[in-house]
Write a structure and sequence with these properties.
The chain is α/β, with parallel strands linked by helices. Helices cover 32% and strands 20% of the residues.
């Protein structure tokens, strides 16, 4: 999609560093707020324009939670736009480096993923003239602080963008609430700040989210997670198993020995995925534990004569995974990112693309009892109770029904030499 104009806040982001800007003395910028509010595009574009206008033969950092997400959400969107403005670039993927040239100037932009605490070591020892941290709240504090410490060149600046998390998140308390004392420009974005977003799309996002996710992603608020996880779900959303035909089948498994085990059988009918049957075993209730072989037999019974495309399994269940492979099942380790999995499952349930049938009584029981853990301030956690069918449902949604990257355009990025 081509932008015909920028909003007032986007224009500030694109120009806050220029000599005539009233914000030119600021040393950092933070843009937070709703999803699809246009902050990522203007932040990324502004960062490259500032770097190329202010420095020559310097190094910069561009950081995301993972390198893959950074390439998808930032680089594939920004590099073609820079090229359209007359910039030239060379992308060296093996070095995680993009060299950009414009007006006789050349600068190096190094790409980093801040996935966990160990990522801080990747950025040590390098000196930057500036750094962009996209979705900074998803990165560990040690990585962010190490990245900021690398910016020691005179005139260097810090660029942060994020969607809100809880009000006790370290970045909210230490950066956003202290923006003035850190000499930082803080801008809060809403969907109305994105001129490319139609009213129809805004309404779709308003329908898509609920509860804490609505307040964070649509309203852009830093609020705590509390109450039921799937607070929009009620018994009327449980439907009978459709007559079919079903085009594809999966089984998702949350493995347990002392804790309950839960398997869900999922079938696709008319573009909708239905949880049509389940297996649920609570060793405490039955006063005995099942072996891996017994669980594998139960999975076979659940599958019946259906052709199962893959069995999605709790990645920590190593022995069970291996047994299923030996028995000839196509096994995939589940994506076990809890919060992103819950968001994805919530989206699918609310939009009607994921349906729990009334035959799945344990899943329906758990979804009413699955709640946020309010005893962990500063962190979004769910209580480890009534979560076994919830986990296998989340594994299926996050691993099989992965969401396409949300972007304004998809295009091939050609390497320039």
């Amino acid at each position: 999609m081509t932008y015909s104009s920028f909003s007032a806040k986007q224009k500030i982001v694109l120009s806050w560093w220029t000599p005539k800007s009233p914000y030119r003395q600021k040393e950092a910028i933070i843009c937070d707020g709703a999803v699809r509010s246009g902050k990522t595009l203007c932040m990324s574009l502004g960062f490259f324009l500032w770097a190329m206008s202010s420095f020559d033969h310097m190094r910069f950092g561009v950081c995301g939670k993972t390198i893959a997400s950074l390439r998808r959400n930032v680089l594939t969107e920004i590099l073609p736009r820079l090229e359209a403005l007359g910039f030239r670039y060379t992308e060296k993927r093996t070095e995680n480096l993009v060299q950009v040239r414009y007006g006789g100037r050349t600068n190096d932009f190094y790409i980093f993923g801040g996935r966990d605490e160990s990522s801080a070591s990747l950025i040590q020892g390098i000196t930057f003239a500036g750094i962009l941290l996209d979705e900074v709240v998803l990165m560990p504090r040690s990585f962010v602080e190490q990245a900021c410490a690398r910016c020691s060149v005179a005139g260097s600046r810090l660029w942060f963008s994020c969607n809100p998390e809880g009000p006790l998140h370290w970045f909210y308390q230490n950066w956003i609430q202290k923006a003035d004392e850190r000499n930082c420009l803080y801008l809060h974005f809403t969907m109305e700040d994105n001129p490319s977003l139609s009213d129809q799309i805004r309404r779709r996002y308003q329908r898509l989210y609920s509860g804490v996710f609505y307040r964070r992603f649509v309203l852009g608020q830093w609020v705590a997670a509390e109450g039921r996880v799937y607070d929009f779900f009620d018994s009327s959303m449980a439907l009978p198993v459709p007559p079919g035909p079903f085009s594809r089948w999966y089984i998702s498994c949350d493995y347990g020995t002392v804790n309950p085990a839960s398997f869900g059988l999922w079938g696709c009918c008319g573009g909708v995925w239905y949880r049509v049957r389940e297996f649920y075993f609570d060793s405490r209730l039955h006063q005995r534990q099942m072996t891996d072989a017994e669980y594998a037999d139960a999975l076979k019974t659940l599958a019946g004569d259906r052709e199962i495309a893959a069995v999605i399994v709790d990645p920590s269940a190593a022995s069970f995974l291996e047994l299923l492979r030996r028995r000839g099942w196509n096994v995939r380790k589940a994506d076990n990112d809890v919060l992103s999995g819950i968001r994805r499952t919530s989206d699918l349930l609310k939009s009607g693309r994921l349906v729990i049938c009334d035959t799945c009584t344990d899943c329906l029981r758990e979804i009413e009892q699955y709640v946020w853990d309010e005893s962990s301030p500063g962190r979004d956690k769910v209580k480890k109770q009534h979560d076994h069918a919830m986990d296998d449902m989340r594994y299926f949604a996050a691993t099989v029904l992965t969401q396409p990257a949300e972007a304004f355009s998809f295009r091939t990025v050609e390497r320039r030499q």
